[in-house]
Design goal:
About 90% of the residues lie in helices and about 0% in strands. The protein has four helices and no strands. The longest helix is centred in the middle third of the chain and has 129 residues. It starts with a helix and ends with a helix. Belongs to the ATPase B chain family.
């Protein structure tokens, strides 16, 4: 309390010197008027500024809530997109594996078909060669037979005369007569 009195004493000394200072006479210094004016301004501005601040606060809170909701929706869409990406990658991997299996089966099938075709062509070629050999053998045999008959015929014509022919005929008639 003594400190307060000292402050007032110092202020009153300044007043006596006609400088700026504290006037302890409240009525003369209009402290009451200034206090009432400041109180009124504070009360009016408090309501005005308070309502503005409350409105701003509500707008900011609403904007924050909307942003949080958009963030939540974006995160949900991101999670859904990631799940779809994983599913798509899984399906792509399955398709790739199936295509590799199918390609291997087709490759094996083509190789087997090629081997079967080669075997058929080999057998067909061998059969054609065998048939050609047999046909050539028959033609050779026919030519040999024809040449042999022709040669025998020529030899018989040159060696057989009329008496030999009549003896052959007589012999054959006798053989036939004995058998009948």
């Amino acid at each position: 309390m003594s400190n307060i009195f000292q402050v007032f004493n110092m202020l009153s000394e300044h007043i006596e010197q006609k400088t700026l200072g504290f006037n302890p006479d409240f009525l003369e210094s209009n402290v009451i008027n200034i206090t009432l004016l400041l109180s009124g301004l504070i009360y009016i501005l408090k309501n005005f500024l308070g309502s503005n601040l409350v409105a701003r606060q509500e707008k900011v809170l609403l904007a924050i809530q909307e942003s949080e909701e958009r963030l939540k929706q974006a995160n949900e869409r991101l999670e859904e997109s990631q799940k779809q990406l994983q599913q798509t990658q899984f399906v792509i991997e399955q398709i790739r594996k199936e295509s590799e299996i199918t390609a291997q089966k087709v490759r094996d099938s083509i190789l087997e078909q090629g081997k079967a075709d080669i075997a058929k062509l080999t057998i067909s070629g061998k059969n054609s060669i065998i048939n050609a050999e047999q046909q050539v053998k028959r033609q050779i045999q026919q030519q040999i037979t024809t040449l042999a008959i022709h040669r025998v015929t020529l030899q018989l014509k040159s060696r057989v005369d009329a008496s030999t022919q009549s003896s052959i005929i007589d012999t054959n008639i006798m053989k036939l007569g004995n058998t009948i």
